[in-house]
Write a structure and sequence with these properties.
The protein contains five helices and no strands. By secondary structure, the protein is mainly alpha-helical. α2 runs antiparallel to α5, α3 runs antiparallel to α4 and α4 packs antiparallel against α5.
Length: 188
């Protein structure tokens, strides 16, 4: 039989398991986030494929701004896809044998990566994407009729605004889920 001192020495080494309600809630929240990431990746891949097809279609033109703009737009989307895939890989199923401290730290790391993507990378990449689009404008002006040029230029403004509002809404929604998850884990 162990003495009281032996038991108290081993006490800190015990693995406290996270509460099953918290892990279930966390798993559901993480599944929602991962599902959203998969949708984002799919949309980005389709957009990149469309831009690559347009790049191939216009490859014979001697328009350096068109080429540079399209390459910038494709590159930005490729970086965003890579960031989403990296982040998605971090959202693998949680090992149930983790102790509460490891479980909480893993989720904190996930939370920090998603915040970094939303607060740093997304605004920078979105800005670079629109710079790439603006680089296409002189070529559009040169090769499109006045009507189509005006239509393209003017319609890009509400599209940009709608895209920014939609992205901001999605980011706000995911950040709220992450905050809820973080709060629940801190209560544990």
């Amino acid at each position: 039989m162990k003495t009281f001192e032996e038991i108290t020495k081993t006490w800190p080494d015990q693995k406290a398991q996270p509460d099953s309600n918290i892990t279930t809630k966390a798993t559901n929240t993480l599944a929602q986030i991962k599902r959203g990431q998969h949708i984002t990746i799919a949309v980005l891949i389709v957009t990149a494929l469309i831009l690559v097809a347009y790049f191939i279609y216009t490859a014979t033109s001697n328009e350096p701004l068109l080429t540079a703009g399209l390459l910038l737009m494709i590159g930005v989307i490729a970086v965003r896809i890579a960031l989403e895939i990296k982040s998605s890989k971090q959202f693998k199923p949680i090992d149930p044998s983790l102790n509460a401290k490891q479980y909480t730290q893993l989720n904190e790391d996930r939370h920090q990566l998603r915040l970094q993507i939303h607060q740093i990378w997304t605004p920078v990449l979105l800005t670079l994407y629109w710079v790439g689009f603006v680089m296409l404008i002189p070529t559009f002006k040169k090769y499109l009729s006045d009507f189509w040029f005006q239509y393209t230029w003017i319609s890009s403004i509400p599209i940009a605004i709608a895209m920014i509002v939609f992205i901001a809404y999605q980011i706000k929604k995911e950040k709220q889920m992450l905050k809820t998850l973080q709060r629940d884990l801190k209560e544990f």
